[in-house]
Amino acid sequence: xxxxxxxPKNEPAMPPSVGHMMSPTDPDNPQNWPVQKKIYASAVATxxxxxxxxGITSLTVGVQGVMMQFDVSMTVAIxxxxxxxxxxxxxxxxxxxxxxxxxxxxxxxxxLPIFALFILGAAYSKNFGxxxxxxxxxxxxxxxxxxxxxxxxADVWSAHMTVTYYxxxxxxxxxxxxxxxxxxxxxxxxKSWRWTQFVTLMIAFAxxxxxxxxxxxxxxxxxxxxxxxxxxEIKLAKAESGVTLAEMAQTTLFTPLAMAVTEPVVIMITFYxxxxxxxxxxxxxxxxxxxxxxxxxxxxxxxxxxxxxxVAALFSTLTSSLIERFTxxxxxCTNLATMAxxxxxxxxxxxxxxxxxxxLFWIGFTAKPTVDHFVPIxxxxxxxxxxxxxxxxxxxxxxxxxxxxxxxxxxxxxxSARILCAGALPLVIIQMIMGLQGKWAYSVFGFIAVAMIGAxxxxxxxxxxxxxxxxxxxxxxxxxxxxxxxxxDQEMQMGNTG
Length: 498
Hints:
Blueprint: H1 35-58, H2 63-70, H3 74-88, H4 91-102, H5 104-123, H6 128-156, H7 162-190, H8 195-211, H9 219-230, H10 245-262, H11 264-295, H12 299-304, H13 307-330, H14 347-366, H15 374-399, H16 404-424, H17 429-436, H18 438-452, H19 454-468, H20 474-478, H21 486-489
Helix pairs in contact: 1-5, 1-6, 1-7, 1-8, 2-3, 3-6, 3-16, 4-5, 4-6, 4-10, 5-6, 5-8, 6-7, 7-13, 7-15, 10-11, 10-16, 11-15, 11-16, 11-18, 11-19, 13-15, 14-15, 14-18, 14-19, 17-18
């Protein structure tokens, strides 16, 4: 790639099933399935991810109850949220290897029940130690559902609509996390904090019933299963995630750590997503606290404030999808035989970055008794719209930024890092608000967000050059063609947890 800016004429025609190890005409290829079968597989993946995301934020509604029952501080009680996220942060590292060896369906159907068992353990915890342990392991075993949803969508939907399908699958995490405070405020008021976990258990059970018949979508496993059924020998190419323990560790542990200090594209995106998710998840602690102290909101009223976040997530899906349709038409890539230049996938993040910094200053300077409560609540909605738009654009871009192994390593780093940051900031956000006052606490994040506006713009203009210079792109560039990273989507995809 010699041009710094995207040029659709330099992009070759790509078949819709590139990266799949199945023929585009194979009826067993998930991209050739009837649309109702595709929708069912996608719905199951969405339901499983929704249940796990609901479980992440569920306990935030019961923080006061946990504090009183176990006689712990607010910071300690918030560990119920943070430890769950810390457990999920391991999923991007281990899930690709599980999916490669067993396929997607078995991992879904084993992961969610174990998640549910630890949620049940959290509900019956007799002390805070047991609650903390159960929440951590619920995240560890539920995390694969947040990772696999991206792989499932990549299996059944064309790479031509990557931004659109990523926007839709992100709804599972954003809406799942947002619905917990909306629903559980009333439940906790009528029952106790333990019912935050019981309701999560019910949702997980309903999702499991929906998913019992989910078809396998991973092409490599489909080929293996068909060969076994017919009694044929089959030899597939070596898995990009690695075969030996050393290869697996290299791909999803050591290489991601190296990319964190050597790859400009990965560094910029990872830092931006870390800021994005850290602020996103602190809202589940800060919004109820600020609304109660500033406007004397009840637990139920504070929970209803998250309706703005759910609506914003739906709106982000709409805008990102429309942007992709517009850029495809603008570049003349209106059919499955052609692909728009990769950098055009960044457009939703470019637009979203403007709302991110604006919403932080908006909320920080309007959350006060002299300003109507709807003003900062709408500001949180703007933040969520911006957050999801940025995530959609940046992660969709990375899907195909490198050859398969490099993409896998980059996505692993980005996913684990942003989830760790999402778990860390809620532990200190109340102290920041009390120490700096809300307007300056959020101004700190706002100023960082201002500096990060340039990240997607730089990638749009110079991303092709930066990727061409990467040692992880050598196989792709030496072929003189844009190798679609969707070949790694069949191995794994990094969950958005949000």
